Amino acid sequence: MVCINLSVSTPPKLSRKLTLCSLGQPSSGPGVVRQIRYGDTNGGLVVLSDTQTIEVLAHFARERIPERSVHAKAAGAFGEFEVLEDISDLTDADFLTGIGKKTKLLTRISTVGGEKGSSDTVRDVRGWATKFYTQEGIQDFVFNDLPVFFIRDPIKFPSMNRSHKRHPQTNVPDNSMFWDFHKNNPEGIHALMHLFGPRGIPASLRNINGFGVHTYTLNKSDGSYVYVKWHFKPDDGIKTMDSKTAVRLAGEEPDYHVKDLFNAINRGDYPTWSVCIQVMKPEEVNSAPIDIFDCTYTWPYEKYPLRRIGRLTLNKNPDNYFQDIEQACFSPSNMVPGIGPSADPVLQARMFSYPDAQRYRVGPNYFQLPPNRPINKVYAPYVRDGPGTMNGNYGSDPDYIFSQLRPVAQSKKARKLWEIMCREGDGKEQFLHNIMPTLVDVPDRLRKEVLGKLIYLARFLSGILC
Ligand code: HEM
Prior knowledge:
Structural class: alpha+beta
Largest sheet: 10 strands, antiparallel
Distance between the termini: 97 Å
Keywords: Alkaloid metabolism, Heme, Hydrogen peroxide, Iron, Metal-binding, Oxidoreductase, Peroxidase
Order of helices and strands: EEEHEEEEHHHEEEHHEEHEHHHH
Domain Catalase core: 25-409
GO biological process, one term: response to hydrogen peroxide
CATH topology of the largest domain: Catalase HpII,  Chain A, domain 1
CATH class of the largest domain: Mainly Beta
Organism: Hypocrea jecorina (strain QM6a)
Radius of gyration: 28 Å
InterPro entries: Catalase (IPR018028), Catalase_AS (IPR024708), Catalase_clade1/3 (IPR024711), Catalase_core (IPR011614), Catalase_haem_BS (IPR002226), Catalase_sf (IPR020835)
Number of strands: 13
Helix content: 25-40%
Bound molecules: protoporphyrin IX containing FE
Number of domains: 3
Shape: globular
């Protein structure tokens, strides 16, 4: 006769910490499965009412997020940036001005082609991503350790990366694909020379450069701006690894670089980098020896010398890799006032691509997660709801723009320009005068609407005109 009785497969173990179910109820034990026992054997039927077992198994099946399509394998750490030279002559960016000012940051350093579990000591570009938690919002720098890129047309990016990854049939990285791509896209020769030179395999992530690669801008609210190239230079110098050692370590110690950075920070040996810029004035662009919007070129150092403006230090390991590094979302589109993009088409495309990837990879509310959250107070009630909302969701505030019920303050930058125009004698009148002729031949209704808006704008900007 089969004896059926309800029991548990293993007795609950005593634990120093009280174990709870993920929904907070007391657990009879994390190793317990409720089942209808088959006689005195270990066998039995697991019951559907054992919701804890179901939750544990169901969550396990969902605990991965898609790995990054590129730059999947990485190390990461927190740190700080300190201003060493004031560059308020070039930018309004608050975190870059005021000698001694410190800003918290998060850095992720990656290989590009390999998957999340791939070996560290391969010949590949190293990616460098730093997130600055500034008082004016998030500033991200998403750089590489090579000063130039392989392509100058962004549409080629997926093709280039596929040629570096696994063959569609064999599922093995394939040198024929690699060279087939590069032979037919010769603009990458400069980057290839770097990749196959001594710097193609670093000895340690603590001894690599971070290059902005693209031209960026620094700007001020008075309308002035300069073009810049960013350089992070390791204070301990560049250190590289020979191919033979790298091949051995790729097999014996696949996480060699990740461990090296973690252990160095753990023992208080904090790596530092000098943060430098090259600067070019807009009027110098036409006579520059290179096309500054083509990321396959560097700027000659003799003509545009490095200016050291700060120090970057990595001094704290993440408490939890998945939360702080895997879910970190860096994007070249995240810029604070005073820093801007340039007309480099690859940079322009990247500004779309990263948040797009992150909405898919992490979810549409990725910016609410701990590593991505700005430290300043955010008020963006038009971006709300969605999976994982955890920022209070703006309570009862209107969820549509231009509400009279709760008008919101806007950036003071437009007001500053208006004030300058007001100071320039008849600047304000000139402004309106210049607009009027453009309204002569537009439909009546549109003209009235535009005039209404202008009056509203002028009142808003100057608090009933200056
Ligand atoms: C058209 C050109 C490019 C496109 C479309 C592109 C796209 C992407 C995408 C989709 C990711 C994954 C983002 C994520 O899932 O969070 C990524 C990661 C990354 N890219 Fe690019 N990329 C381009 C060029 C570059 C260049 C020129 C650099 C360096 C100057 C660069 C540096 C990086 C780095 C460092 C990461 C890893 C960021 C992290 O640590 O999370 N990429 N890229």
